[in-house]
Amino acid sequence: MGQFTLRIDEQVFDLQTVPGSARIRVRGADGHEFLFDPDWDRYLNAEGEFDLDPGALGLDRELLTAKLNEVDRQRRFEIQKINDEPFEPSTRATLFDNGDFQYIVALDKVRSLAGGYFLAITSQWKSSANPEDEQFRFRACIDRTGLEQLQALIQRELAN
To answer: N- to C-terminal Cα distance for the chain?
Structure first.
């Protein structure tokens, strides 16, 4: 979901998801900024270090909490809907294949996380009871920087 707008009465808030977290960054039209943690119904300062009372900013805590929790429920529903779709990686490569056993690497952009990639390594036994099934050996979501670091590591090793 990434970035969106919330309107409460005459107030407008820009909302942004915090990567790797359930928290929502809230930015008011007047420039004040804070975080909302929907798992704990907790408000934090913009750096996430100290508790914050939205009432001190002239905001109705109960109404704001209800609206932010609704946004969070919708966000989680959208993510779950995306994650329930079958995984069909756009890029696959065989790392090892001896005819009966193979390791496969798959890489795909993560639809529910802007700038994220899903990296998976699976194995497959051709002589198993279900030869078409793949077993996950490693799974991770990484950002572009992590993907570039992996690329640099592979290139360094291949250069030697």
So the answer is: 42
pLDDT tens per residue across span 113-158:
667 888 899 999 999 898 888 888 898 888 888 889 999 999 999 9
Alpha carbon distances (Å) from 134 to 11, 103, 108, 129, 139? 51, 9, 17, 12, 13
With a CB cutoff of 8 Å and minimum separation 6, the contacts of 43 are: 34, 35, 36, 37, 51, 52, 53, 54, 61
Q: Domain residues of the chain, as ranges?
A: 3-84, 91-159
Fold of the domain built from segment(s) 91-159? Nuclear Transport Factor 2; Chain: A, (3.10.450)
CA-only gyration radius of the chain, Å: 22
